[in-house]
Prior knowledge:
Elements: H1 2-20, H2 52-55, H3 116-124, H4 144-156, H5 165-174, H6 194-207, H7 231-239, H8 258-271
Helix pairs in contact: 3-8, 4-5, 4-6, 6-7
Amino acid sequence: MKRKITALLTAAVMAAGSLSGVYAAEPGRALNPGRQNTAAEITEEEPPEKPEDEASEELSTERPSEKPYEEKDYTEEMTEPEISGEEIPEIPSPEYEKEGQEKLPFEDINENAWYYDAVSEMYSQGLIPDSSEKSFRPEENITGIELLSLLYRADEKTNNSNDTRENVISWAKKNNILSDNDEWKFEADKSLTREQVMVIVYRYMLYKGINIQGGDLSGFSDSGKVSSYAEAAAAGLVSKGVISSSSGTLRPDEALTRAEAAAIIVIVINLSK
């Protein structure tokens, strides 16, 4: 009876071992030391299928299909601007006359000449009479009657080209611009020296009431060449800025050109205003 119970227990243990996947040692024998008492083959079970809605949420590893490149013309169509019937204003020419100055009729005066403004101002003020003559002759020496005529027109406000020399000379003597007692002889049609011009201009300024104080001629290297009758005139014109020289010389015995005379007369006219 005892042996029967033992046999039944052994059978139960073996059955339990086979269900759990473990091999049990035979009764009465020790476990083999070279063999581990490990689990037998483990069957890997497949994971349960996910519902369709969860599966759809998984990110796809596939790259989206790329759209084929399409060329597109981004150039805008150019349209012609509408032109109204209004006239387009003219652009002024860069060549323009200076304010207050008339266009000179003289063909021998360049607009870039240093004396252009002086001649232009004399012409605009009527000191040069209108005539058919197309030349000013700026490099020619000025004569006595030419200088007196310019001063006469500036004083009398006339540009009558028919002014006689008798009227001009009479006016000059009347106002002490010319004198019979001068140390030099006035000759109407001959060129004037620079110191003679200084004397005539100086006396004209005194006649017009311009205050003139004595000037200093020491800055001119040739001041000793100035005649005694012209010293006061030279000093007075230097003090008023009528005469200046970049070369530091007066050249009193040389002739004066028409261009140089124009520059002097314009200064004197502006001083007498």
